[in-house]
Amino acid sequence: MNANLAVIVDNLDYLLWGRLAEGIPGGVVLTLLMALGAAALALPAGILLASAAWRYGGLVRRLLFLWAEIIRGIPLIFVIFWLWYLLPMMTGSDLPGAVTVTLALAWFTAASVMHSVLAGLQSLPGGQYEAARTQGFSAGQTLRLILLPLALRNVQPSLVGIFINLLKDTSLAFIVNVPELTTVAGQVNNRVQIYPLAIFIFTGAVYYLLCCGLSLLANRRFSRRSAARRYASG
In what residue span(s) does the ABC transmembrane type-1 domain sit (predicted)? Predict the structure, then answer.
């Protein structure tokens, strides 16, 4: 048991932040950086796509739904592989692996965000749109200032679930040898080759704590907002 703990303690800095001192983040730090970067790209992209699908309908909506269904119907691992080989051909230079995986995660997640936000928009009563238009708001202003804030508030639990899945999906970066948590855990295991159970139990526990922490923060925010609304109405 002591030996199992020792292998974690001896490699803890590498598992947590990789070679950050040399300017090369890894481990948990790189996992979080990729997740945050992908979320920062996927959220506004998904909102814009949902807004376009809701605003224009018809052919635009059908094309966006087709795109989203294709992306969601393909395993993420293939999206990573495609961008890994496609982006250098398009840009003429090799991109860092972490950037490629972050873009793949963002592209994949944006489709789920689009579906969630569009469902939130479609669930709103039609009278809100009509009331805003009678008050002189344009269609774009109504969407941006009234409907989107309401829809985003309603679908927050769904978005939290999407981003928890995004955080877990960063583990797929190991397939292109990006040194995030799963990859560096595998490197430690290959070097030590004695205590794989301890190493990967630790890795799973870290992912659980990260995802659980995100869920708890979101629930705490929801609880505060609900309490504030009850206080305001009471």
Answer: 28-218
